[in-house]
Amino acid sequence: MFARLGPRQRTLAFFALLAFGCIGAVGAALAVAHTRLDLPQARSAFVGAGLMAGFAILGICALMWLVFDEMVARPIERLAAAMHARAATDMRGGIDTAVARHLGDLATAASALTSRLGEARTEATADIARQTARLHAERAQLTRILSAIPAAVLMVGPDHRISLYDGHAAAMLDDQHHLGLGQRIFDYFDETYLRTALQNLADTGGATLDQQLVTADGAQLFDVTLHDLGQAEGYMLSFPVPRETTPARPVVYDFEMNTREASGNILEVPLRDLTYVVFDTETTGLLPDKDEVVQIGALRLVNCQQASGEVLDLLVNPGRPIPARSTAVHGVTNEMVKDAPDMAHAGRRFHSFARDAVLVAHNAPFDMAFFHRHAATIGAEFDNPVLDTVLLSAVLFGMTEGHTLDELVERLEIELKEEDRHTALGDAIATRDVFLRMIPMLEARGLHTFGAVLTEMRRHKRLLPDLNTKS
What we know:
Beta-Lactamase; 11 strands; six-stranded antiparallel β-sheet
């Protein structure tokens, strides 16, 4: 039982046991003396003295606990959280010794240790940066080469999920759904046609096959060349593009998706294997049942990295004037949204962008309430799994710490431009960076899967309701 308690709860339990133990000892002594007295007045005095002693002991122990909690238990909890954060992430700075000034040399030693860890990481980062620069140069070269070829390219894994696409493909297929890593190829090409073509490719035993494929919405017909990449690697589709088509985005890929084992139960999937959409909204006010969305910002994370070019930044026409006090916060004016899409259209764009992904938001119930209220108009249900950085903060730092986005950004040493705050995309970027810092911290606590994290989040549901009703 005590193993599940934090240091503050353990000290509270210790002082409570001490208080009741002392009260019991005083009560037992008075009870023995009480039986040896004959005078009723003396017995009454003993009972009064016992009650006074009991309340005095309770008061003294409560005061001692408050002092101990403020000077020892809470600083230990903060010091441990700060050390966990630096051990699990790339935070470089030492620990502020002021948070544990009453712990003597312990805070100084912890600060020195984390500072040395930060220096070692700086040295390692320099080596990584050189290799990353080389990879970026190679990616840029690949992008230039593919952009010069008048063909769109899609690489698809054995589970029929996209692991590479180029700007040509994005420009030609985005009208159906947002084209993104990890999306099912059958969202873009008719499943029956494509499976038949793949079977024909397998039957011929060749490396390529020319085939006509119908898009999933039945609106277009493409002359596609299928390329067999081997059973373990999947296949590739290439198709000619109109002369006027230009790449809208660079080549985007994640080849690890081809080797990742799929799991039918999301509760068992490791955090690092999930696709996330981190999002935020700006609104006309703070009442989800009455106010409206004016801006949506979202980013897709694949393999715990920002997927290049997979960003959604939408202004939304709320169908009503935006109050001046709201514009003062997020900067969205009536003029800016005059020609913007309404919530039905913007909501469909966001739903397409976020399909098959875990949604991540700061105070998710607020943002999700707008999409749930407009679900019928949008024509889609928002039943994605959800992670909330407020609840994750409570898991990592305890209930008594602050959990606002600004507090988390400061605590996790995340750089955020002031002009980006209180814009939908800017807050989504801040939430993304907070979430990416949290993942290794959760793993360091033994929370490696979505199910394990969900269980811990639900312990703090008195802060915010859990939105994962289907998990």
